[in-house]
Amino acid sequence: MRAFLREGDALVAEVDPGEREVLATVVADVAELLGGGRFEERARETGRAHRADASADAEASLLMRLRLEPLPSPDDPAVHRLLPDASRDDAAVSQEFRRLTEDDLRQQKIDRLAELFDALAVDALANGADAGDGAAGSRRSRRTRGRHEAAAVVRVDVARAPALAATLTDVRLVLGERLGVTDEEASARLEDEVVATRPGADDHAAQARQYLGSVFLALGWWQETLMACLLADLPELPDDAGPDLPDLPGRAGPAGGLGSTS
Which Pfam families does the record cross-reference, listed alphabetically (predicted)? Predict the structure, then answer.
Protein backbone atom coordinates (compact mmCIF):
# COMPACT_ATOMS: atom_id res chain seq x y z
CA MET A 1 0.00 0.00 0.00
CA ARG A 2 1.37 3.38 -1.03
CA ALA A 3 0.39 6.90 -0.01
CA PHE A 4 -2.23 8.92 -1.85
CA LEU A 5 -0.78 11.41 -4.31
CA ARG A 6 -2.39 14.18 -6.32
CA GLU A 7 -2.71 13.57 -10.07
CA GLY A 8 -4.72 16.33 -11.72
CA ASP A 9 -8.26 16.32 -10.36
CA ALA A 10 -7.83 12.95 -8.65
CA LEU A 11 -6.01 11.38 -5.74
CA VAL A 12 -4.39 8.04 -6.49
CA ALA A 13 -2.74 5.34 -4.41
CA GLU A 14 -1.22 2.02 -5.36
CA VAL A 15 -2.39 -1.09 -3.50
CA ASP A 16 -0.89 -4.54 -3.96
CA PRO A 17 -3.26 -7.39 -4.94
CA GLY A 18 -3.20 -9.10 -1.54
CA GLU A 19 -3.77 -5.82 0.30
CA ARG A 20 -6.61 -4.90 -2.02
CA GLU A 21 -8.36 -8.20 -1.40
CA VAL A 22 -8.04 -7.81 2.38
CA LEU A 23 -9.33 -4.23 2.35
CA ALA A 24 -12.26 -5.08 0.07
CA THR A 25 -13.28 -7.94 2.35
CA VAL A 26 -13.18 -5.76 5.46
CA VAL A 27 -15.18 -3.02 3.70
CA ALA A 28 -17.81 -5.58 2.67
CA ASP A 29 -17.97 -6.92 6.23
CA VAL A 30 -18.69 -3.44 7.62
CA ALA A 31 -21.42 -2.89 5.02
CA GLU A 32 -23.01 -6.21 5.97
CA LEU A 33 -23.09 -5.12 9.62
CA LEU A 34 -25.09 -2.08 8.52
CA GLY A 35 -27.55 -4.23 6.56
CA GLY A 36 -26.01 -3.74 3.12
CA GLY A 37 -25.82 -7.43 2.20
CA ARG A 38 -22.70 -8.92 0.61
CA PHE A 39 -21.03 -6.63 -1.89
CA GLU A 40 -19.27 -9.55 -3.56
CA GLU A 41 -22.58 -11.12 -4.57
CA ARG A 42 -24.01 -7.83 -5.86
CA ALA A 43 -20.85 -7.15 -7.87
CA ARG A 44 -21.02 -10.57 -9.50
CA GLU A 45 -24.68 -10.06 -10.40
CA THR A 46 -24.64 -6.44 -11.58
CA GLY A 47 -20.98 -5.60 -12.19
CA ARG A 48 -20.76 -3.12 -9.31
CA ALA A 49 -21.46 -3.03 -5.60
CA HIS A 50 -22.63 0.59 -5.78
CA ARG A 51 -26.03 0.95 -7.40
CA ALA A 52 -26.06 3.70 -10.00
CA ASP A 53 -29.87 3.60 -10.08
CA ALA A 54 -30.89 4.16 -6.47
CA SER A 55 -34.64 4.33 -7.15
CA ALA A 56 -35.32 1.01 -5.43
CA ASP A 57 -33.25 2.02 -2.42
CA ALA A 58 -34.98 5.41 -2.30
CA GLU A 59 -38.41 3.75 -2.28
CA ALA A 60 -37.36 1.38 0.50
CA SER A 61 -35.88 4.28 2.45
CA LEU A 62 -39.14 6.23 2.12
CA LEU A 63 -41.08 3.30 3.53
CA MET A 64 -38.66 3.00 6.44
CA ARG A 65 -38.99 6.71 7.18
CA LEU A 66 -42.70 6.10 7.70
CA ARG A 67 -41.90 4.08 10.82
CA LEU A 68 -44.29 4.83 13.63
CA GLU A 69 -42.39 3.20 16.47
CA PRO A 70 -39.18 4.68 17.93
CA LEU A 71 -35.99 2.77 17.11
CA PRO A 72 -33.83 1.38 19.93
CA SER A 73 -30.04 1.54 19.86
CA PRO A 74 -28.22 -1.17 17.88
CA ASP A 75 -27.27 -4.26 19.88
CA ASP A 76 -23.85 -4.59 18.22
CA PRO A 77 -21.40 -2.15 19.89
CA ALA A 78 -19.57 -1.67 16.58
CA VAL A 79 -22.76 -0.62 14.79
CA HIS A 80 -23.59 1.59 17.77
CA ARG A 81 -20.32 3.47 17.20
CA LEU A 82 -21.34 4.11 13.59
CA LEU A 83 -24.86 5.13 14.63
CA PRO A 84 -24.44 6.74 18.06
CA ASP A 85 -27.23 7.98 20.29
CA ALA A 86 -28.42 11.54 19.79
CA SER A 87 -28.71 11.94 23.56
CA ARG A 88 -26.84 10.15 26.31
CA ASP A 89 -29.35 11.16 28.95
CA ASP A 90 -32.74 10.78 27.27
CA ALA A 91 -33.47 7.38 25.70
CA ALA A 92 -36.82 8.57 24.33
CA VAL A 93 -35.17 11.45 22.45
CA SER A 94 -32.53 9.10 21.02
CA GLN A 95 -35.11 6.57 19.86
CA GLU A 96 -37.26 9.22 18.21
CA PHE A 97 -34.22 10.72 16.48
CA ARG A 98 -33.27 7.27 15.21
CA ARG A 99 -36.78 6.77 13.85
CA LEU A 100 -36.43 9.92 11.77
CA THR A 101 -32.80 9.70 10.64
CA GLU A 102 -31.17 6.30 11.09
CA ASP A 103 -32.33 4.60 7.90
CA ASP A 104 -31.03 7.43 5.72
CA LEU A 105 -27.73 7.51 7.60
CA ARG A 106 -27.32 3.75 7.25
CA GLN A 107 -27.94 3.95 3.51
CA GLN A 108 -25.49 6.82 3.08
CA LYS A 109 -22.77 4.85 4.85
CA ILE A 110 -23.54 1.70 2.83
CA ASP A 111 -23.38 3.67 -0.44
CA ARG A 112 -20.00 5.14 0.48
CA LEU A 113 -18.68 1.73 1.47
CA ALA A 114 -19.87 0.39 -1.89
CA GLU A 115 -17.93 3.12 -3.71
CA LEU A 116 -14.76 2.13 -1.86
CA PHE A 117 -15.39 -1.56 -2.53
CA ASP A 118 -15.79 -0.85 -6.24
CA ALA A 119 -12.56 1.15 -6.29
CA LEU A 120 -10.73 -1.77 -4.69
CA ALA A 121 -12.17 -4.94 -6.19
CA VAL A 122 -15.19 -4.70 -8.45
CA ASP A 123 -13.38 -5.33 -11.73
CA ALA A 124 -11.71 -8.52 -10.52
CA LEU A 125 -15.02 -9.84 -9.17
CA ALA A 126 -17.05 -8.85 -12.23
CA ASN A 127 -14.67 -10.74 -14.49
CA GLY A 128 -14.61 -13.81 -12.27
CA ALA A 129 -10.88 -13.43 -11.66
CA ASP A 130 -8.81 -13.46 -8.52
CA ALA A 131 -8.53 -10.13 -6.75
CA GLY A 132 -4.97 -9.72 -7.97
CA ASP A 133 -5.68 -10.49 -11.63
CA GLY A 134 -8.66 -8.29 -12.48
CA ALA A 135 -8.89 -6.23 -15.64
CA ALA A 136 -8.38 -2.50 -15.44
CA GLY A 137 -11.52 -0.46 -14.84
CA SER A 138 -12.68 3.09 -14.68
CA ARG A 139 -11.62 3.50 -11.05
CA ARG A 140 -8.30 1.69 -11.13
CA SER A 141 -5.69 0.30 -13.45
CA ARG A 142 -2.80 -2.08 -13.04
CA ARG A 143 0.67 -0.64 -12.77
CA THR A 144 3.68 -2.95 -13.12
CA ARG A 145 6.14 -2.61 -10.26
CA GLY A 146 8.44 -5.54 -10.90
CA ARG A 147 8.90 -8.74 -12.77
CA HIS A 148 6.26 -10.68 -10.85
CA GLU A 149 4.29 -7.96 -9.09
CA ALA A 150 1.55 -5.62 -10.23
CA ALA A 151 -0.19 -3.02 -8.09
CA ALA A 152 -3.69 -1.66 -8.61
CA VAL A 153 -4.21 2.07 -8.68
CA VAL A 154 -7.11 3.24 -6.52
CA ARG A 155 -8.36 6.54 -7.90
CA VAL A 156 -10.79 8.97 -6.28
CA ASP A 157 -11.93 12.37 -7.52
CA VAL A 158 -10.83 15.20 -5.26
CA ALA A 159 -14.47 16.17 -4.75
CA ARG A 160 -15.21 12.67 -3.39
CA ALA A 161 -12.11 12.47 -1.19
CA PRO A 162 -13.84 13.80 1.98
CA ALA A 163 -16.48 11.08 1.62
CA LEU A 164 -13.72 8.48 1.29
CA ALA A 165 -12.05 9.85 4.43
CA ALA A 166 -15.36 9.51 6.31
CA THR A 167 -15.74 5.94 5.06
CA LEU A 168 -12.25 5.00 6.22
CA THR A 169 -13.18 6.43 9.62
CA ASP A 170 -16.27 4.20 9.71
CA VAL A 171 -14.22 1.09 8.90
CA ARG A 172 -11.65 1.98 11.57
CA LEU A 173 -14.39 2.60 14.15
CA VAL A 174 -15.68 -0.94 13.63
CA LEU A 175 -12.19 -2.44 13.76
CA GLY A 176 -11.36 -0.35 16.81
CA GLU A 177 -14.44 -1.61 18.64
CA ARG A 178 -13.53 -5.22 17.88
CA LEU A 179 -9.95 -4.59 19.05
CA GLY A 180 -10.83 -2.55 22.13
CA VAL A 181 -9.18 0.59 20.74
CA THR A 182 -11.08 3.67 21.91
CA ASP A 183 -8.39 6.37 22.16
CA GLU A 184 -4.92 7.35 20.94
CA GLU A 185 -3.16 5.61 23.82
CA ALA A 186 -4.88 2.32 23.01
CA SER A 187 -3.98 2.80 19.34
CA ALA A 188 -0.31 3.30 20.26
CA ARG A 189 -0.35 0.15 22.40
CA LEU A 190 -1.91 -1.77 19.53
CA GLU A 191 0.83 -0.58 17.17
CA ASP A 192 3.51 -1.79 19.59
CA GLU A 193 1.69 -5.10 19.91
CA VAL A 194 1.33 -5.64 16.17
CA VAL A 195 4.99 -4.81 15.52
CA ALA A 196 6.41 -6.88 18.38
CA THR A 197 4.08 -9.89 18.49
CA ARG A 198 4.33 -12.98 16.32
CA PRO A 199 1.32 -15.22 17.10
CA GLY A 200 1.86 -18.95 17.23
CA ALA A 201 0.51 -21.17 14.48
CA ASP A 202 -2.18 -22.60 16.79
CA ASP A 203 -3.17 -19.31 18.44
CA HIS A 204 -6.06 -18.40 16.15
CA ALA A 205 -7.39 -15.62 18.39
CA ALA A 206 -4.00 -13.89 18.41
CA GLN A 207 -3.70 -14.33 14.65
CA ALA A 208 -7.11 -12.71 14.14
CA ARG A 209 -6.14 -9.81 16.39
CA GLN A 210 -2.86 -9.38 14.52
CA TYR A 211 -4.74 -9.38 11.22
CA LEU A 212 -7.37 -6.84 12.28
CA GLY A 213 -4.79 -4.70 14.05
CA SER A 214 -2.63 -4.53 10.94
CA VAL A 215 -5.62 -3.45 8.84
CA PHE A 216 -6.65 -0.86 11.45
CA LEU A 217 -3.18 0.72 11.51
CA ALA A 218 -2.70 0.58 7.74
CA LEU A 219 -6.03 2.31 7.11
CA GLY A 220 -5.13 5.00 9.63
CA TRP A 221 -1.89 5.75 7.79
CA TRP A 222 -3.68 5.64 4.42
CA GLN A 223 -6.28 8.09 5.68
CA GLU A 224 -3.55 10.45 6.91
CA THR A 225 -1.98 10.55 3.44
CA LEU A 226 -5.40 11.24 1.92
CA MET A 227 -6.01 14.14 4.29
CA ALA A 228 -2.50 15.48 3.69
CA CYS A 229 -3.33 15.79 -0.02
CA LEU A 230 -6.53 17.68 0.78
CA LEU A 231 -4.82 19.98 3.29
CA ALA A 232 -2.09 20.76 0.76
CA ASP A 233 -4.76 22.38 -1.45
CA LEU A 234 -5.74 24.90 1.22
CA PRO A 235 -4.31 28.40 0.75
CA GLU A 236 -1.65 29.47 3.21
CA LEU A 237 -2.11 32.69 5.17
CA PRO A 238 0.75 34.81 6.53
CA ASP A 239 1.29 34.42 10.26
CA ASP A 240 0.28 38.04 10.89
CA ALA A 241 -2.66 38.01 8.50
CA GLY A 242 -6.08 38.75 9.91
CA PRO A 243 -9.47 39.66 8.49
CA ASP A 244 -9.97 43.26 7.40
CA LEU A 245 -13.12 44.28 9.23
CA PRO A 246 -15.16 47.24 8.01
CA ASP A 247 -15.87 50.18 10.29
CA LEU A 248 -19.37 49.30 11.45
CA PRO A 249 -21.50 50.87 14.16
CA GLY A 250 -20.68 49.16 17.42
CA ARG A 251 -17.07 48.42 16.51
CA ALA A 252 -14.45 49.89 18.84
CA GLY A 253 -12.45 52.70 17.24
CA PRO A 254 -8.98 54.00 18.07
CA ALA A 255 -10.24 56.62 20.55
CA GLY A 256 -13.64 55.36 21.53
CA GLY A 257 -14.77 52.42 23.57
CA LEU A 258 -17.01 49.54 22.49
CA GLY A 259 -19.97 50.96 20.63
CA SER A 260 -18.36 54.30 19.88
CA THR A 261 -19.07 55.66 16.40
CA SER A 262 -17.44 59.06 16.82
Answer: DUF2017 (PF09438)
